[in-house]
Amino acid sequence: MEHIKLLSIKFVTTFILLYLILGIGYGMSFGQTLAISLPCFATYYIGDILILERTNNFIATITDFLIHFTVIYLLINIMNFGGDVLMATFLSSLVIAIYEAFFHLYVAEDLNYDDKHFQINHYDYLTELSQEINPFADDFDDDEDY
Fold this sequence. Notes:
elongated, 5 helices, mainly alpha
């Protein structure tokens, strides 16, 4: 039940953000904006369930940006968009990625992801560094002839 709630929140918010940018800003129709918003179901599963659970918020947000950028770019090209496709895609993906950064916090809290999922292990390998003043002086005994 919680996934249905999260999916509906994500779909409505994604649609509103896309309609503000693509619909009002670039003149796309309501139906076209709705069609671009539909793949958010796939991005929910990939970004919010698979990647967010295994990594952290930053990586999941970057992944969501890249997925949204690819999907929006492909769908806008199919729809014969009349404006600057790359700029419209970039702005839409950027705004959605900013929203996703906050949405991931809500998802993590709602789905009870442990804090251990948000830690990337940093292995600190320590090495010793030393400098030998006379590397060969201690190797030879002064009394012996060679």
